[in-house]
Amino acid sequence: MHPVLRTVLQRLGLGVLTLLAVSVIIFSSLELLPGGFAEAILGQSATPETVAAFNKSLGLDRPATTRYVEWVTGVFTGDLGKSFAGAGGWRSDNVRTVTSIIGPRLYNTFFLAALTAIIAVPIALALGLLTALYRNSWFDRVCNALTLTTIASPEFFVAYILMFFFAVKLKIFYPLSTVNADTPFLEHVSRAMLPAITLTLVIIAHMMRMTRASIIALLSSPYIEMAKLKGLTGRQVILNHALPNAWAPIATVIAFNLAYLVVGVVVVEVVFVYPGIGQLMVDSVSSRDMPVAQACALIFAATYILLNLLADIVAIVTNPRLLHPK
Amino acid sequence: MTTEHVDIRAIRSRRTFGQNAWRLLKSAPFTAKFGMAVIAFYIFCAIFAPVITPYGEAEIAGKAYQLSSWDHWFGTDQIGRDTLSRVIYGARNTIGIAFLTVCISFAIGGVLGIYASVTRGVLDQILSRIVDVLMSIPVLIFALMLLTMFGKSIWSLIFILAVLDSTRVFRLARNTALSVAVQDFVEAARLRGEKLPWIVLREIVPNILPPLIAEFGLRFCFVFLTISALSFLGVGIQPPTADWGSMVAESKTLITFGRPQPLIPAAAIALLTVAVNFVVDWFLHKTSGLRDEK
Amino acid sequence: MKSNEKRSDAKRVKGAPLVEIKGLKIEGFSDDKWHPIIKGLDLTLKRGEVVGLIGESGAGKSTLGLAAMGYTKPGCRISAGTVNFDGKELTTASQEELRKLWGSRISYVAQSASASFNPAHKLMEQVVESACNHGVMDRAAAEADAKDLFKRLQLPNPDTIGGRFPHQVSGGQLQRAMTAMAMSCRPDLIIFDEPTTALDVTTQVEVLAAMRRIVEEFDTAAIYITHDLAVVAQMAHRIMVLRYGNLVEEAETRAMLKQPTQDYTKTLWAVRKLQKEESKGDDVVISVNNVDGSYSGLVKVLDNVTVRIPRGKTVAVVGESGSGKSTLARAITGLLPPSRGRISFNGKDLPAKLADRDRDTLRRIQMIYQSADTALNPRQTVRDIIGRPTEFYLGLKGAAKDRRVVELLEAIELDESFIDRYPGEMSGGQKQRISIARALAAEPEVIICDEVTSALDQIVQEEILKLLMRLQEQTKVTYLFITHDIATVRAISDEIVVMHKGKVVQQGLKSEVLNPPYPAYTELLLSSVPQMDPDWLTNLLKKRAAA
What pLDDT is attached to residue B254? Predict the structure, then answer.
């Protein structure tokens, strides 16, 4: 087998294993609940009969391993179980499925993430490249201090400042990003603009610094100096010699920061009351709606793992040592 | 004697620790000095909160939602507590909890990481794989989930974050310790027949201290921000304890009326983390620079 | 060929000045200050002439070589002086003017070929890049020319090697490919920056021969930078000795070798003049019997190795990289338990694993490392470094320990003021002395010296070797001296073990091993060591061609 293929498969296998391990952790966190789940929901005064009925109606009386297998296979068929939400929800027959709750929210979150990525990635890469090329200039120093400041600030601080000035005072953007399934696309964009800008500010800082660091490492390698001393133009040095070796670090930077979005999105969605999966997770956590919380956690973790996997695979398939073995 | 050339710089005259520290501080750039001043100010506020605050932590000092005045510099909150006093008490609670969490996290992650790097073998393999898996779940998400399970008490918050964060500490401690453990002077100690405690405490730890100290600052910022975010989301530090994250959440509706109230505790958080980052940035630059010097 | 037409150009007369550097000063930036690197140097180079720049680390030879191209490393600047290349002033030239010269009329061959080739492109693409880019030839002609150059440089499979990636060929081949790359535009000047330093001696000979032949064939001027006088003697017509950014001496190669005027120049071959009288020993202190060793059980790094080490003598283990000489040391110290065979010490079997050896056995076998930078804990003072073995093995404490540390410092010719220093506050040679004192502190029977002088400058090497010999006379300690450098072997050994690919080729007294009849590998190894004779390479190549 070709080494590239072998390494990619190894990495994929590792990714699948990690995902499985993560799903076990997420699932078993439910089992760890002291006093059992029913008691936590129904209160300590619940009679044993109510508890038994509750457990039976949710299928919690069956062995944990059976339920885990069901849950995991359910993930593949899009069946994530039923929500606990709603008064007496577990007794009612028309409770909402987790999938139907998460579906539209997931779309909104991906919409926000995509919007952010479209704005942030090009700007961050460009700034990172510029600060690397004009290292130690005043431009670089200002960028360094500014990005250090945004990295260090909590997301909600950036969010409220933007909201305060651009929505409340200047009234350029909507202060709250309430959207629903019927919101037209362009309005969706403009309503999601402020959260997208907030997230952009936060990830640009990380991304720019990482890009700068990897470009500097790349440009200081001896073969770049050699290319210069061969009399190539700056353009040729960058395009022919730096770029072919830059894909792996750039992919890592992008994947790492998109994965970072996964976390940032939670707080920002809450600030702007944007109906995404982050807000849903916080709500389900507050109301102890475990199936929804688990599903959200699994989606976040899976996105995170897949993005990192993608970066690793880019690094593997662009590595000449693996592409052209001895 | 040798005929070798010795750099004049190398034979520095010996100064006391205090003199060295003072010289180092004087040479620090503006950002680092600013950072250190801010940190000192916060520590002062945290320690002397009861002395310097005009009102008590949970004292209802006036009417709700007052604007700033001479009596209440930052106004009052939704039930009439003095915002300034609560911000100062918040320094005590939020910083204290974050600091304690990072200490526990370093105790777990640092000890296991260094131990794994020195002994290698099966334990190292197992711990590293566990850490890989735990690190593939974002901390905020994981913490949200676990807090639902274990309830919203301060101790479960501290413990959960400490365990989750210790994975990062483990990885750093293991990798830096490993880079030292493969050096010849550690091998020389092994060949001499030294036992594990000597190798760890005398040969390895002194050499990984600078990166670990820097990491302590960064981990503190991260934990501090995570706690604030969790409190902001309503699952972290619970009222009536004054805490900056939950204060932002409590007053967040005011912002849509054009009042900057929630920005005050948020700015307090941002200022501290920025300050710590500035100091760490300088410290890293300084210690890595010293290593290049030889 | 186009390049041949160029060569007949009337202006390109051999002997006309090509490079003229006057009053050059270069500074480097560190610790927020500019420090001088080159302190006012002149250099004149005629067409077709090869000048050698020689000096120890920090002499500024690479900086001067690069300055001849009008280039300074990032963080350095030319603060005074002029660099004139064929009538053009380079210090004031624009980047664009310099770019047009680089690669076409001046080219560069770097020390580390594996780092200087872009890992993402095939060799051929990189070799023809200059020629195509400067418009000297079209791609097809450039490739044909490159294959011709590969052939002249005696690269294997010259027609197909260009299709390989840098990581697919060996270090010596890469270095020759880089020479082809530098030659592709038939430049007037090539800067060779320590091109063979990273290579083994047997490979070095081939690369030196190939480079010299091609420079002569195309009548190219060159600046050859190295720290090895014997190497530069083969390559250069004229030699400049540099030290701390100043010129020490400049002369024609033969004149310099015959009659150096400066004391410093003589120290450059200091080690070669050391010669210990060999003596035979029959009392065996360590014997290694039929030992196999491997890392992770895959590749055999030691293959049926048998070595006997006589008490109070110096046994030098010599070999190239991958010969297994350092692995042998690791097997004796217990760091790498042998997979087969046994090692006995004072007639008794030595436990294979380090953990199974008692403290007294550990005390009796000490080790000194190649790099004192990594062998001394940077966070411990000399008092702790040297004091620890006296405390650990001999139970000395407090004032007694300090007294012993001062005694040991005196034994290694350092005074007691060093006792509170950290390794970062000492020079390389002083650090290596501290390493020696740490080994001595255990009062051992055997000291294993693993390439202890190879990271040091020549004159410091000599001092350290003399110190080791004096200590042997005083304490009757046995040395197992691992090295790749034949001059060092000649200087200090009683017996020599030659290793190659994990096997012992030969063991015997110095006089036996260094004189014929040789086994084939010993002959190859010994004959490949450059001599202080400008005709050495020529004669060697003649002899090898005849054989």
Answer: 79
Q: Which domain holds residue C118?
A: 2-264
d(CA A166, CA A177): 13
**B206 vs C: CB within 8 A:** yes
Domain residue extents for chain A: 3-80, 99-323
- Give the global pTM: 0.83
Report the domain count for chain B: 1
Regarding the domain delimited by A99-323, which CATH topology (the fold level of the hierarchy) does it fall under? MetI-like fold (1.10.3720)
CA angle at A27 for the pair A25 and A32, rounded to the nearest 5°: 80
- CA distance linking residue C214 with residue C235, whole number of Å: 11
Give C393's contacts in chain B (Cβ within 8 Å). 192
Neighbours of chain B (3+ CB pairs under 8 A): A, C
- Cα-based distances in Å from C389 to C159, C443, C467: 60, 9, 20
Q: Which of A230, A244, A320 sits opposite C129 (nearest CB)?
A: A230
CATH number at residue B158: 1.10.3720.10
N- to C-terminal Cα separation, chain B: 22
Q: The complex's ipTM?
A: 0.83
Q: Is residue B1 part of a domain?
A: no
Q: What value does the mean pLDDT take over residues A28-42?
A: 62
Please check whether residue A137 touches C, CB under 8 A: no
Are the beta carbons of B138 and A148 separated by less than 8 Å? no
Same domain? C255 vs C294: no
Across B42-64, average pLDDT: 78
Looking at residue C98, what is its pLDDT?
93
Residue in B5, B192, B294 closest to C392 by CB: B192
DSSP annotation string for A16-74:
HHHHHHHHHHHHHHHHT-TT-HHHHHH-TT--HHHHHHHHHHHTTTS-HHHHHHHHHHH
Q: What is the pLDDT of residues B201-220, one digit of tens each?
A: 999 999 998 889 888 998 99
Overall average pLDDT of the B242-262 stretch: 80
Which residues on chain B are in Cβ contact (under 8 Å) with A266? Answer: 140-141, 144, 229, 233
pLDDT of residue A39 exceeding 70, the answer is no
Residue ranges making up the domain that contains B121: 33-58+69-288
Residue in chain C closest to B12 (alpha carbons) equals C425
Determine, yes or no, domain membership for B20.
Answer: no
Could you tell me if C119 lies within 8 Å of chain A, comparing CB atoms?
yes
DSSP string, C470-504: HHHHHH--EEEEEES-HHHHHHH-SEEEEEETTEE
- Does C121 contact A at CB distance below 8 Å? yes
Note the Cα C475 to chain centre separation in Å: 31
Neighbour tally for A102: CB within 10 Å: 23
C12, containing H or E segment = none
Cβ distance B6 to C430 less than 8 Å, yes or no, reads yes
Q: What is the pLDDT of residue C80?
A: 92
Beta-carbon separation of A326 and C102 below 8 A: no
Residues C104, C235, single domain; the answer is: yes
Chains contacting C (3 or more CB pairs within 8 Å)? A, B
Residues C320 and C201 in one domain: no
User: Between B and C, how many residue pairs show a Cβ–Cβ distance under 8 A?
Assistant: 80
Q: Give me the pLDDT at residue B101, please.
A: 94
Interface of C with A in 406-425 (CB under 8 A): none
**Which chain A residues are Cβ-neighbours of C101 within 8 angstroms?**
231
Radius of gyration (C-alpha) of chain C in whole angstroms = 26
The enclosing domain of C401 has a CATH number of 3.40.50.300
Buried residues in A203-237 as b, exposed as e (16+ CB within 10 A): bbbbbbbbbbebbeebbebbbbbbbbbbbbeeebb
pLDDT in tens, C326-362: 999 999 999 989 989 999 999 899 998 998 999 999 9
Average pLDDT of the residues of chain C: 90
DSSP at B82: B
Task: Give the per-residue pLDDT at A41.
Answer: 63
The pLDDT-based confidence of A32 (bands split at 50, 70, 90) is: low
